[in-house]
């Protein structure tokens, strides 16, 4: 059987800017490619429906005003396990959470993953990305390839 072949749900969001950047930690510099979700609609859809992400690809969620530590993300209609890093206005990681897909038919059946720290940006990457690259709270995301330290 073939499911959803005409739905297009697994396609990336149309028209999202894509930026190069890097995470910098004591272990080194890790280049990343990030889709940028900055409107409410873009952030709400996020990575819903995706069946995979390239190894160093993810999504950067940008807010115009800081979010409270209680603000969280959910995995409704999200098919792949993800890690999320919550960042301050300087790109410094305040917390990292692991999130699992939610099979519930309604959003109310899905848990939320609160940041635990105030934040103004969040980055979702494949599950295990931050652990694999030894990226921890206190490490930093630099946006723009030119802003990344030479490796």
TrEMBL record:
One family name in Pfam for this protein: DUF192
UniProt-recorded name of the protein: DUF192 domain-containing protein
Organism: Marinobacter maroccanus
